[in-house]
């Protein structure tokens, strides 16, 4: 099981610790570092900055939002950064949800998310393969565009730049069972949002069809501390925001995922409190048991014991949301 460092996206502004953490992760032998985006900082610019200040560590987006760019624009960014970094790029993509797609990007959320995702990946594969001009008779991403408002002058094109790698890894952040199954078929890896090493049976049948080299790379908060309850507070804060606020009351993929983990009543209660403006109560309502099973929090000995559970499953890469260099070092020592 390889280690990665997940830095997420910015809050109010750039986090001055991120470069130091990425460089420390590289020094410790971490395989990868990952950036993200929501509706503030983008994923690719910080990753390019990290690429310029490191030499070996692989670079990934976990995740870049598909609604933010056309698939050809995303492919251009990926192939550009792959060249500049000497072949270190990994492209993690996510569809997001209706609130972000329609509220932030001003685009309709696809009625068939599976089809939209499949077409998006297919266009990227064609760009990176550069075997022929991009053509796709698609519902969401047709190339050339031939809709009712088209000029009819669209010309199939292939990239001027020769991609460094036609097989640049493409990973997908998928949550629903059908989406995960499609990810196994069309992508090079899966980026689970939450992962519980004690519930691997939820994905056993789906992942049985994964080909050799398929990455399973969940993100998890890791924190070395003496007080477990105190260490779980940032995990609960993240869960409260995602489950309560990252989606509509009637359509929240994160709450649905928590429900599949066996916490349906608790997920709905968190939503109810958060949407009522009672955010502190929503965070407190996140069960400690759920926060604990999807994270690695506590003294070194406790993390070492729990890490063995993570090793026994299908995980290939553990992407640690680690807040400090000490935690990075402890995790590297335990994983080594």
Provide structural commentary.
There is one protein chain. This protein has 336 residues and is α/β, with parallel strands linked by helices. It has helices at 18-27, 44-52, 71-84, 98-103, 113-129, 177-186, 204-207, 228-231, 233-245, 253-260, 264-275, 279-285, 288-293, 300-312, 325-335; strands at residues 2-6, 32-35, 58-61, 64-65, 89-94, 170-173, 189-190, 215-216, 219-224, 296-298, 317-321. The chain contains 15 helices and eleven strands. Residues 17-313 form the Luciferase-like domain. InterPro entries: F420-G6PD/mer, F420_OxRdatse_Rv3520c_pred, Luciferase-like_dom, Luciferase-like_sf. This is LLM class F420-dependent oxidoreductase. Keywords: Oxidoreductase.
Summarize the structure.
Keywords: Oxidoreductase. With 336 residues, the protein is α/β, with parallel strands linked by helices. Helix content is 43%, strand content 13%.
| N-to-C series of helices and strands | EHEHEEHEHHEHEHEEHHHHHHEHEH
- Main sheet characteristics: 11 strands, parallel
Mean pLDDT: 94
Strand elements, count: 11
- Number of DSSP helical runs: 15
Question: What keyword list fits this structure?
Answer:
Luciferase-like_sf; 15 helices; Luciferase-like_dom; alpha/beta; 336 residues; 11-stranded parallel sheet; single chain; oxidoreductase; LLM class F420-dependent oxidoreductase
């Amino acid at each position: 099981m390889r280690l990665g460092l997940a830095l997420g996206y910015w809050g109010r502004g750039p986090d001055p610790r991120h470069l130091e953490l990425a460089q420390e992760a590289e020094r410790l032998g971490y395989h990868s570092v990952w950036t993200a985006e929501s509706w503030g900082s983008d994923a690719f610019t910080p990753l390019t900055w990290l690429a310029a200040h490191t030499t070996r560590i692989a670079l990934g987006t976990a995740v870049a939002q598909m609604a933010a760019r056309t698939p050809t624009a995303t492919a251009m960014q990926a192939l550009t950064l792959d060249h500049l970094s000497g072949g270190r790029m990994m492209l993690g993509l996510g569809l997001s949800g209706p609130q972000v797609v329609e509220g932030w990007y001003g685009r309709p959320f696809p009625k068939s998310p599976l089809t939209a995702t499949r077409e998006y990946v297919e266009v990227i594969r064609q760009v990176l393969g550069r075997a022929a001009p991009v053509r796709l008779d698609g519902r969401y991403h047709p190339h050339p565009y031939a809709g009712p408002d088209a000029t009819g002058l669209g010309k199939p094109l292939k990239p001027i730049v020769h991609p460094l790698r036609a097989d640049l890894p493409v990973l997908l952040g998928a949550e629903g069972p059908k989406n995960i199954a499609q990810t196994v078929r069309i992508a090079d890896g899966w980026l689970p949002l939450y992962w519980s090493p004690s519930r691997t049976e939820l994905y056993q049948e789906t992942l049985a069809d994964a080909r050799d080299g398929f990455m399973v790379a969940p993100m998890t908060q890791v924190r070395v501390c003496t007080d477990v309850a105190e260490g779980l507070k940032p995990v609960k804060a993240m869960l409260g925001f995602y489950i309560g606020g990252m989606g509509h009351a009637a359509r929240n993929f994160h709450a649905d995922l928590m429900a599949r983990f066996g916490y349906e009543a608790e997920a709905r209660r968190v939503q109810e409190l958060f949407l009522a403006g009672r955010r502190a109560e929503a965070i407190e309502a996140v069960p400690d048991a759920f926060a604990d099973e999807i994270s690695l929090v506590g003294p070194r000995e406790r993390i070492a014991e729990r890490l063995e559970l993570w090793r026994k499953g299908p995980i290939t890469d553990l992407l640690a949301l680690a807040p400090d260099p000490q935690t990075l070092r402890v995790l590297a020592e335990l994983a080594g």
